[in-house]
Amino acid sequence: MKISEAKVFFCSAGCGFASALSKASGCALSSIKVGRFSDGELFASVEEEVHGRQCVLIQSVSAPANDNLMELLLAADALKRAAAASVIAVVPYLGYCRQDKRNKQESIAAKLVANIMVKSGIDEVFTVDLHSKQIEGFFDVPVYCISGVPVFADYFKKTGFSADEFVVVAPDFGAVRRARELASILGCDIAIVDKHRPKANVSEVMNVIGEVNGKNLIIVDDIIDTAGTVCNASFELMERGARGIYVCASHAVLSGSAEKKIEKSMIKEMIFLNTIEIPAHKMIDKFKILDVSLLVAREFFR
Ligand code: R5P
Question: What pLDDT was estimated at residue 205?
Fold first, then answer.
């Protein structure tokens, strides 16, 4: 689809990404009017003519995840009720995707969110680094997910790094595919952390598979939420003789005081994609933000 032929809208958590995408693709932007009733209920309205038009709707399902998800659903519904021909949701970070299986008696929130997104009128979803590949199958509409790994790889290549001094580390088994992808582009070996999660938001390192002694390490993950996973992994990896630790993560969820934990940790640098806007009060010197919008524009809107 040519983005220049579509109407491109954004909601509250899509603003930063929308302006980056607009710079990368030259598209004009329109915002959806979002408001609240006094009890907190949200409403969304389209202020422009969209009859028969292809519409692109940009919104991340980042914190506050429930409100931002609801905005996305209401905006899609508003566009469809205004007779848009189609609604393509560009969701740089799709919250709820971590909840993609039942461990005990939990809901599968990722599937439920997929159902309601389709029900709201979304015809296609474009996203970045879903938590797991199978989530695409939760949607009964096409889902196109790009990997941010090439953006991270370019960053390291530009620093003139030397492949034999670096090892790419998966901080848990779920991250192995991503770590292999980065290691294969950079020509490095990989190591894997055997992470155990006794309960949500708590993580423990059980073991490390692979050689890390004397190496610079690049930990690659999809989400940094409490930062427990990468901070615990960094501590254990330094104990095992690592020289320095870099982290590449697609989505800067950064809940609670995650940035303070990272500041105090042994991590030298944490490199994020711009799928979630980091509030100014959470920005620290260790953070580097890479723009993935050019890749999105190239892959999705030719
Ligand atoms: C887990 O499966 C994910 O890939 C991330 O490792 C996890 O969500 C990070 O969470 P936290 O930063 O709270 O440890």
Answer: 66
CB-CB contact of 42 with 34 (8 Å): yes
Is residue 195 among the annotated active site residues? yes
Grouped pLDDT means (10 residues each) for the chain, 302 residues: 86 95 91 95 96 97 97 98 97 96 91 98 97 94 97 94 94 94 97 82 79 97 95 93 97 97 97 97 98 91 75
Atom of ligand 1 nearest to the CA of 258: 12
Question: Which is the catalytic residue, given 33, 101, 158, 195?
Answer: 195
CATH number of 192's domain:
3.40.50.2020
Whole-number pLDDT of residue 20? 94
Ligand 1 atom nearest to 131, measured from its CA: 4
Whether 32 and 133 share a structural domain: yes
- Residue 183 near residue 210 (C-beta atoms within 8 A): no
CA distance 228 to 141: 34
Q: Residue 255: CB within 6 Å of ligand 1?
A: no
Q: Tokens 């929130």 correspond to what residue?
A: 109
Q: Is the distance from the beta carbon of residue 231 to the nearest atom of ligand 1 less than 6 Å?
A: no
Of 146, 176, 200, the residue that ends a domain is: 146
pTM of the model as a whole: 0.93
In a domain, residue 296? The reply is no
Which atom of ligand 1 is least distant from the CA of 175? 4
Cα of 121 to ligand 1 centre, how many Å? 30
Distance separating alpha carbons of residues 44 and 155, to the nearest angstrom: 38
